[in-house]
Amino acid sequence: MNDLKHSRWTAVAIALAACISVPAAIAAAPDSVSAPAVATYWQMIPAATFVTRSSNMSYSYANGGCVTLPSGTDFTHRLLLPAGATLRYVRTYFRDTGPGSVFSAVSQYDAAGGLVDMGAMNSPNAGGYSSMLSPDLAHMFDPVNHAYVINVQYRTDDTIFLNGFESGAGEMLFCGVRVMWDMP
Question: What pTM did the predictor assign?
C-alpha cells in the first residue's frame, strides 16, 4: 500500500515538472513554435444570383446559372464571409462573345461614403469560355466596420477603371464567381 502512495506522488511530481518545463522550452526556442492551423474555404456564386445596380438595367438568363450581360449592365452581389476570415482570391467565370472585356472587383464600403476596390481585374479579349483570377487579396474581412460586394461589368474598352464603372457595347455571358478565404 505504501508503494502505491509513493508511485502516485511520483506521478504527480512528474506531471508538475512537465507543465513547468514545456513553457520554458517553448520560450527558449521561439523558432520551434508552429503557426496555427488554417482552414481554406470556397464559395461559388452563380451569376443568376447577382442583381443589377440599377432597376432600369436589363439582362436575360442564359443557362447553367449564366446570364447575358448587355452593354452597360452592372451586376453586384453582397459578399458575406465570417468575421476574421482572410479573403484571398476571387475567380470570375464568363464566355466572351465580343471585342470587349469583363471587369470585376471586390468593393469595400464604409459608413462614411468611402470605397476601395480590391482585386480589380480586366479579362483579356479572348473568345469562348474562360475565367480570370484576382491577385492574392490577403484582406482581413471586417463586416462590423465595412460592407463588401462583388461588382461585375462588361465593357468594350480596355481601360482599367477603379472605384466605379462605365458603359460599353456588345454582350457577354457572365457565369459567376468563386471566392476563396482562410480561417485560422
Answer: 0.71
Query: Residue 28: is its pLDDT beyond 80?
Result: no
Residue position matching grid coordinates 468593393: 107
Q: Select from 74, 75, 127, 124 the least CA-distant residue to 96.
A: 127
pLDDT-derived band of residue 60, with 50, 70 and 90 as boundaries? confident
What are φ and ψ of residue 17, in 5° steps?
-65, -40
Domain locations in the chain? Answer: 2-32, 39-183
Q: Rg of the chain's alpha carbons, rounded to an integer?
A: 26
C-alpha cell at 91: 475567380
- Beta-bridged to residue 91, according to DSSP, are 133, 178
Residue 117's nearest CA partner among 73, 84, 66, 76 is 76
Dihedral sign computed on CA atoms, order 14, 16, 18, 21: negative
User: Angle 168-170-175 (CA atoms, 0-180°, nearest 5)?
Assistant: 100
Q: What is the mean pLDDT of the chain?
A: 76
At the fourth CATH level, the homologous superfamily of domain 39-183 is: Galactose-binding domain-like (2.60.120.260)
Are the CB atoms for 65 and 137 separated by under 8 Å?
no
pLDDT tens digits, one per residue of 129-173: 889 999 999 999 999 999 999 999 877 654 444 444 444 445 678
Say if CB 139 and CB 157 are below 8 A apart.
Answer: no
Q: In which residue are the cell numbers 482562410 written?
A: 182
